[in-house]
Design brief:
Elements (H helix, E strand, L loop, with lengths): L1 H10 L9 E7 L2 E7 L5 H5 L4 H13 L4 E6 L4
């Protein structure tokens, strides 16, 4: 459910929604969600001073019943 929520949020703020990839796996600290976007959209997802990424993390943590980590991966590397 969380991966779908993250994908929905991200796809609605980027210019290339077909390039969005959201994958999840469990770790010792909780669930880890990795988001990949088109390199041209990385600035939109992170936002000024990381505000958009922080807001996404806040929303995901609010709808979750366990610890969740959301990372935006730079696809250029």
């Amino acid at each position: 459910m969380l991966t779908e929520a993250v994908a929905y949020l991200i796809k609605n703020i980027v210019d290339f929604p077909d390039d969005v990839s959201v994958k999840s796996h469990d770790s010792a600290r909780g669930e880890h969600i990795r988001v990949r976007v088109n390199p041209e959209d990385i600035g939109r997802v992170i936002g000024r001073q990381g505000r958009t990424a922080s807001a996404i993390r806040t929303v995901v943590q609010a709808i979750s019943d366990h610890n969740v980590r959301v990372d935006v991966i730079d696809a250029r590397r």
